[in-house]
Amino acid sequence: MSSTEELQASNTLKRKATRWQATADADGEGYDEAVGRYSLLLFLRDLDDTPDKWAEFVNGLRNAPSAIDEKSTMATLLAAANDTRPIDYDYLENPDINAKRRRLILYGNQDAEDQVGEHDALVTIARRMWPDPDDLEDVLGNAYEDNIRKIAEGGERELYNPHVIFSYARSWSEVRYRFMNHALRDDPAYNDKYSTGRGFNKGTEANTIVHKSNVLLDAVMCEFQLLRGTGYNDQDRYIFQELYQLSPEEGRELLRFTGDNNGLRIGLSPVFNYFISFINSYMTWRVRVLESARKLFLQNAAFRSATSNAQRNRLRAEANEATAKQIRAADLGYRAFVNHVRVLLDEANTLDAFNKTTFDQLEKIIATTTGEVRNCQLNKAPDLKDNRKFQTELRNFPSIMVPLRRPTGTSMIAPPRQRGSDSTAGTDGNSVMGNA
Question: Is the pTM of this model over 0.85?
């Protein structure tokens, strides 16, 4: 089967009036019921192809009394008969089971040709999945049931279509490239090749797949069910929430509100895009400084000279407490940020707009959290304070190309002023963080 045939089949199914398009509209919102009109489909098979027989049929229609009424069914049938021509082939089973099936010329008018064309287009596309016509295993359905929790539950299929899943497979191939690339960087025979130019750049790009935060991808990935030791059971799935402080469903809701054609008013989607970038920037920074703190502790002379597990565990607990104290202010700011993201997700769903007070609070929280990140004592670890790349990223944190822009017009709702109330109450970002 050629790609040209598949393209033609795809174009056939994209016509608005095809059954392929119409039956996708389960709620019937995309069409109006035509009252007082109907369509008629008659399929006559294995007819005598003697020319006189067809002429006799057409003459019978022409001579019927009601044929003179142009609006009658008889007149419409006569017009269809006059438009009849070879349009395809029909296939019939042979009564002799040992004989080949029979192929007959199929005649029809333009509407019949369109219907058969749609049917053939579906067959053409399906043949890619089922080249053996006797093997009709539900390959995709079984794969979804075995691997993806949400598909098995009947929801969120748009997030797990084959195109997206193949993109995950490509990402996995990049991860394996990273292993080979980094292994050869340390090989004297290949160091020059993979430490400069394209080899270095491709390996570094693959490195980001493993070491950079990606809240949207992780929100989707954690729905892959446990299968032969890989994937996520319910306990494994909670790791997403422990890291990002969001549920996987909330992560996928952020995904739904990004990109085009998401149903939101103009100005809302860019805000959610900013939220996603801020989450990823914060988590990438957090992982980096915590990793640095862990390595610094493992190099500690007291830990290295400890003679018992109890002594090492005590030292580790003390170090963990000190690290948690140093990062606490930034984490409180991040949690306050996430709590406000939840509120704005709810407002987008229910109002298709943001409440001005909520957005004002969020802007203050972002500014406060950004300051806490830049001033965190963990940034001064020996391996970080002299790291030019890290310090540059820290000064530019959150390093988001497109700044946060306030929605305008009907996308931002000002709450009603209450008589005697202080209009600035409740907008203090620090108080929100204290309650996180």
Answer: no
Cβ–Cβ under 8 Å, residues 362 and 426: no
Q: In this predicted model, what pLDDT tens digit does every residue of 397-410 receive, in sequence order?
A: 999 988 999 998 88
**126 in Cβ contact with 13 (< 8 Å):** no
Render pLDDT for 307-365 as a digit per residue (tens, 0 to 9): 899 999 999 999 999 999 999 999 999 999 999 999 999 999 999 999 999 999 999 99
pLDDT digits (tens, 9 = 90+) for 162-176: 888 888 888 889 889
pLDDT in tens, 104-122: 999 999 999 999 988 888 8
**Cα–Cα distance between 128 and 190 in angstroms, integer?**
42
Tokens of 206: 């693959």
Torsion of Cα atoms, 292 then 295 then 300 then 302, to 10°: 120
| φ, ψ for residue 92, nearest 5 deg | -125, 145
Quick check: 394 and 285 in contact, CB under 8 A? yes
The Cα 269–Cα 273 span in angstroms is: 6
Other C-beta atoms closer than 10 Å to the C-beta of 182 total 14
Whether 245 contacts 335, CB under 8 Å: yes
Q: Which long-range contacts (CB under 8 A, 24 or more apart) does 378-383 make?
A: 378/289, 378/290, 378/292, 378/293, 378/323, 378/326, 378/327, 379/289, 381/289, 381/292, 381/293, 381/296, 382/296, 383/292, 383/295, 383/296
Contact between 227 and 220 (Cβ < 8 Å): no
What is the predicted pLDDT for the residue at 436? 33
